[in-house]
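The freezer alarm interrupted the setup, so I double-checked each line after restarting. Inputs confirmed:
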Amino acid sequence: EIVLRQSPGTLSLSPGERATLSCRASQRVSSRYLAWYQQKPGQAPKLLVYGASSRATGIPDRFSGGGSGTDFTLTISRLEPEDFAVYYCQQYGTSPETFGPGTKVEIK
Amino acid sequence: QVHLQESGPGLVKPSQTLSLTCTVSGGSISGGSYFWSWIRQHPEKGLEWIGYIFYGGGIYYNPSLKSRATISADTSKYQFSLKLSSVTAADTAVYYCAVGSTETTGVWFGPWGQGTQVTVSS
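Predicted 3D structure, all chains:
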C-alpha cells in the first residue's frame, strides 16, 4: 500500500501568515488522486481538496492544492482564526485508500 | 446536502462483533454514484479506510481487516451498516461513515458523519 508522510508535524504560525503543508507518497500517486482534509477537535474530518487541486464545494479560495507524482502541497494563503486545525492528506489512486498522519497548524 | 449519522454500542467485549449503522438523510443510497463508506480513527494509528459499498456495483474492503469486516445496506431504511468480528483492543477507535466520490478509480470522502467512539474492553 502507499504510505503517506506529512511534514512538518506541527506548524506554528500567526493569523494572516501563509501556511505550506507537505504530503509525500512512498510511490507515485496516479492521476493526481490526492485529497486534503481539515479536522478540528471533536469534529469529523472535512474535505477541502480532491484531485490534488480541486476545491470542494464551499471551500474558500485561500486554500489551494498542488503537486503531482509523489510530492503534494496544501497552501493556505492567509491564515484565518478558524483555520487552526489538523490537516490530513489521502491518496486514492491505488487501493487501499490511505491517509497521512496529519500536520497540526497551531497559533504561534 | 447529504447528512450522515452513526449509531451503535459504544462498548464491545473482546472477541465479539462490533455493529454500527449509518443513517443517511438528504439523499438515497440506491441513487447516484456514491460509495457509502466506513473509516476509523485510532488515537495512535490515525485514519484508516475500512471499506465501502457501491449500490449495484459491489463492496470493497481494506485487506488489513483480514476479512473481519462486513458492510451491507438497507435502502428502504436509508441505512448502511458495518460489522467487525473478533474485535480486540486494537479496534478501539472513533468510527465514521462518509460519502465517497470518484472520478474513475479510487474514492475521496465527504461529507462525513460526526463519528462514534467504540471501545473494546471486558
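Quick read of the result. Chain B touches chain A through 25 residues (CB under 8 Å).
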